[in-house]
UniProtKB/TrEMBL annotation:
The name this protein goes by in its record: Nitroreductase family deazaflavin-dependent oxidoreductase
Pfam family, one: F420H2_quin_red
Protein family per UniProt: Belongs to the F420H(2)-dependent quinone reductase family.
Organism encoding this protein: Actinoallomurus acaciae
TM regions (residue ranges): none
Catalysis performed (reactions): oxidized coenzyme F420-(gamma-L-Glu)(n) + a quinol + H(+) = reduced coenzyme F420-(gamma-L-Glu)(n) + a quinone
Domain of life: Bacteria
């Protein structure tokens, strides 16, 4: 099973032929710029398509009390790169609004039911992120 750096490398090398389908769901690659280092960081994330030009991901970090670093990076710089299989594109990341979050959360929890468990593990409100192609 692919995970972490190896997951990213195999996904990139194979245009997602290896790594897009993962544990019964689908994964994209999100690249952010480190808010402290200025270096590019790429993370595999479970996703759902939202309309024609957007995708949703969840900043869960398994229900940890602190958000994942990729989320704090995109808060500092919302200009990101996304790869969905062989499709690589620039996107702007934003946190879902309170009005749109419930429906997006529900769709993501259908994709990966553990998200509901992750939310129960922390007092932090886990955000849903919308990645909009630019």
């Amino acid at each position: 099973m692919l995970f972490g750096r190896e997951h990213v490398e195999r996904y990139e090398e194979t245009d997602g032929a290896e790594g897009h389908d993962w544990q019964g769901t689908t994964v994209l690659l999100l690249s952010t710029i480190g808010r402290k280092t200025g270096q590019k960081h790429t993370t595999p994330l479970i996703y759902r398509k939202k309309g024609d030009d957007a995708y949703t991901v969840i900043a869960s970090k398994g229900g940890a009390d602190k958000p994942p670093l990729w989320y704090t990076n995109l808060q500092a710089n919302p200009e990101v790169e996304v790869q969905v299989q062989g499709d690589r594109f620039a996107a702007r990341a934003r946190t879902a609004t309170p009005e749109e979050k419930p429906a997006l959360w529900e769709a993501m929890a259908e994709t990966w039911p553990a998200y509901n468990d992750y939310q129960k593990k922390t007092e932090r409100e886990i955000p849903v992120i919308v990645l909009e192609r630019v």
